[in-house]
Amino acid sequence: MTIDAQPVTLEADNLSLGWGKVLERLTRRGVTSITPLTLTITGFNDDGVAAEVPEIRTAVEAFLETQDKRDSENVAWTIFPQNYWDLAQGDREYFFELYTESFQRVQDFNPRNNKRGSYFQRLVDLYGEGKGPNQLKWMLDDWDAHPKARRTSKFQATTFDPHRDYTSQSLLEFPCLQQVSFVHHGDTLGMNAFYASQQIARKAYGNYLGLARLGAFMAGQMGLRFTRLTIFVGLAQMDVGKTDPDLQTLLAVVRRELKTTGDLVAA
């Protein structure tokens, strides 16, 4: 039976365990990719903060450091700049202004990594340089203005711009995240994220952190509880060799914690 490049659906009530399940699947013999992957994460607290396993998080950061890659907080920042939101102290208009103005300086300081923008930048200033549109602001303002006309399909935002992103370059890391959407039900909010492809070992943990924080922000502004994050990935793939010693060290921790919680499923 073919097990490579097959669809997989996973669920977890903990961000670390959800990511760990994906990593463990990809490191099985005969598997080089999952296509597509659907991962649903729940277990958020009343403030929308994702549950994590400290041992896995510590192992992830150690792995990224030995691989000389950006840590999870750095990756998460590209999707939701938590430190800017903390500085804004709950004022979302100031938050958007602060980020938009600051990101232009970030681009000037490090154009190599930021010349194409970041995910959050495209959500709040799609065309860059303050030209807009601010998709998150539009959704939140519309939510506030039309309490009885909340058509679900309008609560979506894109990070993909055909004018800039259709390119013949053989390698292009940004944007892999294409779109996010939000679904409200009663007093709860769920968020969906759509990836064309995703690097699981080096990027996905930070991706999931950033997405969870974005969902929590949106839920808080809408007066809802953030309860579910679902990630759809067209092609989930391993971005480091399976025999890499750093990966093996990380995988040992992941498998141990999955086994402890009963989430390790036999191949």
UniProtKB/TrEMBL annotation:
Matching InterPro entries: Thymidate_synth/dCMP_Mease_sf
Source superkingdom: Bacteria
Name of the molecule in the record: Thymidylate synthase
